[in-house]
Amino acid sequence: MEVLDMVEMRLRGTRPNRGLLPLPHQRLSPLPRLRKLLDERQVDWHAISLQEIPPNHIWPQTSSNFTVVPPGVVGDCYVKFPALGRYRDQEDPTWVSQHFLQEASTSEILLKNPHNNIAQYHGCIVENGRIKGLCFTEYSKILAEVRSELSAKEKEECMKRITSSVQHLHELGLVHNHLQPSNIMIDNGGNPVLTNFEWCTWVSEDIEPYSTPFNWSNSGLGIAEKANDGVALEKIFDWFTR
User: Fold this and answer.
1) Averaged in consecutive runs of 10 residues, what is the pLDDT profile of the chain (242 residues)?
2) What secondary structure, in 3-state letters, does 38-64 show?
3) What pLDDT score does 167 carry?
4) What is the pLDDT of residue 38?
5) β-strand partners of 193
6) pLDDT of residue 2
7) Where are the strands (E) in the chain, listed by range?
8) Could you give the 3-state DSSP secondary structure of residue 150?
């Protein structure tokens, strides 16, 4: 069996007792492109050996502090998974798991302190005592898709709501640290919704220097400061209203 076939089976959860949950919203679209690219480079699949990643390196253990999403809700959710792509980039082999645990903890705070313009979190998917995914309401559009459709007044109102969502985080003592247009979705009512809390953490905590995109904020500082979000909001406003 080819390596990509094994990867796809693992993503679909078709390998007994070892695969990820077979959820309907897993994104498999990159696999055909990856297969084509590597085939073009004549990669010898038989020369590649697979090494299983220990579960504790990817999926954090759950506890009574986390909300388990009801089974009937999962199919209608956007499910976010651990950042497997960063696994080999970290000195600490448990970094991906710890990072995902931080995002799950932040999501729990937002579940208890909701805001109309912050993505609605429904809980986590738990399998064998470990957090496998985070379930959010799924939104179909990003901010860039409606940019040309809105009047100047509508854009101004939209920015007010985006700013309100960021202020809500700051009032909770949190900093988003990753504000950019692609992390702002639009709901069915046309309202902006702040998403992606992968780098959201408490004020003054250390963060990865590359967590905030350099062209949207004052990246490289390595500290979660409200000014990180402030600079990003100004740049988003300039981009959105021009």
Assistant:
1) 43 38 40 64 69 90 94 85 80 90 97 97 95 94 94 96 98 94 95 95 82 59 87 94 86
2) HHHCCCCHHHCCCCCCCHHHHCCECCC
3) 98
4) 64
5) 185
6) 44
7) 77-80, 121-127, 130-137, 141-142, 174-175, 184-186, 192-194, 201-202
8) coil
Residue 209 CA: distances (Å) to CA of 52, 222, 224: 29, 5, 10
Q: Which of 234, 131, 137 is nearest to 179 (CA)?
A: 234
Judge contact between 8 and 121, C-beta under 8 A: no
| Sheet containing 130-137, strands listed edge to edge, beginning at the edge strand earlier in sequence | 77-80, 130-137, 121-127
Could you give the angle at which helices 30-40 and 3-12 cross, rounded to 10 degrees? Answer: 170
What are the angstrom distances between the C-alpha of 104 and each of 126, 133, 135?
12, 9, 10
203: nearest Cα among 227, 230, 183 = 227
- pLDDT for 149: 94
Cα(first)–Cα(last) distance of the chain, in Å?
Answer: 52
